[in-house]
Amino acid sequence: MRVLGHRKGVEAVRRTIEAAREEGIRYLTLYAFSDENWARPRAEVEALMELLVSNLKAELPSFVKNGIRLESIGDVSRLPEGAARELEHCRRETAGNKDLVLSLALSYGSQEEIRRCITRIAERVARGELRPQDIDRQMIESNLYTAGMPPVDLLIRTSGEMRLSNFLLWQSAYAELYFTPVLWPDFSKEDFREALRAYARRERRFGRTSDQCANDKI
Question: Helix, strand or coil for residue 131?
């Protein structure tokens, strides 16, 4: 039954991508498979990997036609060979597309991402290439999986869960959080648009006062 739910979840992915394109959104990141998901029953993991491969093959023509560039974040070296190969093929085939950057978080965990980032920078310090005082926010961001992408504006969490589940913790520092009881397999275009409407009603202050933000609009 769980695998059937995953298959329905793929339909929600398709709807969300279509809605994002229709709304003119330029960057969309979907949490497809977490670091922790490797601990699930082997049969379920294998089914998820097969589902990933089959849907990448099925959706590639649509990505090319609709200007969608596929990217991935996470430790994709852990993916089975077939899944890694198909993912790389789709990335190459869509590399020139510019309408929407679709990032799939695969074998992804934000704490591990940050640990890898710190390790990479620490190695440069140990080699004498970098001074600790030279480490700034931009350097950290350039060593994350999401290097070159903008920070998260809106993070949508479905299924009534009230947690971030180790997803884009650094990148979501000033994201607006939207929680909905709708289960992901049932998540519709209208649900997506309702999240966007809720986002539009928020006041994004980034540490400033409401008066300061109002002055920006004058």
Answer: coil
Report the run of H or E that residue 81 belongs to, with start and end.
Answer: helix 81-93
Please report which helix (H) or strand (E) contains residue 184, including its range: none
Tell me how many degrees the CA angle 173-179-184 measures, rounded to the nearest 5: 115
What is the full DSSP assignment across 10-79? Answer: HHHHHHHHHHHHHTT-SEEEEEEEEGGGGGS-HHHHHHHHHHHHHHHHHHHHHHHHTTEEEEEES-GGGS
For residues 38 and 78, the answer to whether their CB atoms sit within 8 Å is: yes
Q: Is the pLDDT of residue 213 over 90?
A: no
- Bridge partner list, 155: 177
Distance of CA 1 to the CA centre of its chain: 26
Packing angle, helices 42-65 and 81-93, rounded to 10 = 10
CA proximity to 170, closest of 147, 204, 202, 193: 147
Q: How confident is the model at residue 166 (pLDDT cuts 50, 70, 90)?
A: very high
pLDDT tens-digit map of 117-143: 999 999 999 999 999 999 999 999 999
pLDDT at 2 over 70: no
Strand segments (E) across 54-173: 68-73, 100-108, 154-157
pTM above 0.85, yes or no: yes
Under DSSP, the state recorded for 175 is: P
- Mean pLDDT computed over every residue of the chain: 95
